Amino acid sequence: MASEGVVSLNVRPEFENPAVEEAVVGDIERRLSLWERISNMDPVRKLSVLLLLIVSWELYTQIGDINELMFPTFSATAKALVSAFVNEGLLQNVWNSLRLLIVGYCIGIGIAAVLVVLGVWTRFGGDLLTTLTAMLNPLPAIALLPLAMLWFGLGEEAIIFTLLHSIIWPVALNTHAGFQAVSETLRMVGRNYGLSGLSYIFKILVPAAFPAILTGLRIGWAFAWRTLIAAELVFGGQVMDTSGGLGAEGSNAGGLGWIIFANQMENQTPYVFAGLFTVIIVGILIENGIFRNIEDRTIRKWGMQKA
Amino acid sequence: MSDKALELYIRPEFESGELGAATDVDVERELSLWEKFSNINAVRKFSILLGLVALWQFYTWYSNVEPLLFPSFFFSLETLWKTILSGEMFEKIGITIYVLLMGYAAGLAFAALFLIFAVSSRIGSDFLSTMTAMFQPLPAISLLPLAMLWFGLGIPALVFVTIHSVLWAVSLSTHVGFMSVSETLRMVGRNYGLKGIPYILKILVPAAFGSILTGLKIGWAFAWRTLIGAELVFGAAAGNGGLGWMIFEKGDNLDTEYVFAALFMVIVIGLLVENVIFRSVEIRTLQKWGMQR
Known about the structure:
Distance between the termini of chain A: 50 Å
Strand content of chain B: under 5%
Number of strands of chain A: 0
CATH class of chain A: Mainly Alpha
Shape of chain A: flat
Order of helices and strands of chain A: HHHHHHHHHHHH
CATH superfamily of chain A: MetI-like
CATH topology of the domain at 87-287 in chain B: MetI-like fold
Structural class of chain A: mainly alpha
CATH architecture of the domain at 87-287 in chain B: Orthogonal Bundle
Oligomer: heterodimer
Distance between the termini of chain B: 52 Å
Radius of gyration of chain A: 29 Å
């Protein structure tokens, strides 16, 4: 070591361990008891958590003598849910909402695709895309609804316009970021094959950036779903054909958000809860049924995502 | 070797013809002023912004659009300036930010509680994942009718939906982050004898900071959208509403230039939070620690 600097080392005093107790041989191998085996199953535990929540809800509302209008019991909610599905055509409301969502989602993805293609093609397109997304992505789509109602009138066009806005920017932002992160090696492979233009984008950029694209699609769906429900709630019957009223069966029955709103206005709180359950179910179905499936068939199969 | 003969295709050799001598080309050349200028990112983006504004302005001038439907850019800007000077704008922003901060802070506190519970016991973890699976797909704003029923028309109902929009996004992302903390780091923590809260704060939180920050960002985005949406409904409790209420009220009164002014502010606040607050947190933590390039 250098001689100039004096280094002081803290030397720990030595010590001797007192006699260690003799090891007792415990269970080295042992069959798990039935209880342990059952409680090791994930679905069993989660289902019992759910059951426990439901039981405490039921008990709280029954014993606490809560006003049904404020907080209905679980059984009343379940009854309302069943009767809404069977007798009052709740499926029609779900479909009315989903139809708008699908139309908006498809157009939105189309516009986002055009923007992103322009963005990778030319520098001007890239600049335009980044400027627009930076500006419009932080703007909640629902805030545009009053303007949309002014421009497109009270109707589906106004809702679709706001939905477009909630989808285009997250999808375009994520896709563009994903494209930019594609490694130079992959790009060179593409150029080596003589790919250019659209075939370059679809054969090289899209597969390489697929995780980012999927994230964008997911965020876009989440925003669109929230915007749609909010729009139906806030502007009640103004933006959708609800002339059929509650329990109507047809395209004039209004959407899911409107059902929640209208039932609350009529103090049918169990039906409000039933509407919320339906929103949850639709959300879970789309998340786990569609996006999860796409993920399994693409990025997981390609080994781009673990677990 | 098998009895199948291998056939190789051997490309015939050839000699390439004379290459033409390279003609005088610019090997090195100063970029022209225009090229140098247009290579600056900020200049290009700024001119795009200017171009959009000019388009807007000219469109409203020449097509004679009713200002009630689509006011010109300068008219909107003037209105923005007027509302800023009169203090009306800041009053509205103040109300919105107040509710947002309250909801965000309370949401984070709840998320922290749930997460501590989830990290320390298996039943807590099950509880958290069941709750997030159930509530994450539920748009917070759909709870607004219930919140209005339970808490009355006012700030508590807004705070309730904001909490709901933050809580699940943050818990989900953080929980996933905690679960993917590597075993090595966990063992380091256990080696130091860390347990309970110090273990969470000193090992799990720094290791999972990337996903925590993502959760915070998503939570903010949902909260901001939910709050503006909720304010559109009934922000006007006690006679003073926030930005969302301003958009709704002015839109209803056909004061469209005020709607645009409020939208400008919504964008500015969104940009500030995302590019100033979250960005600087990111630079001071993730980038400094080398967890993100």
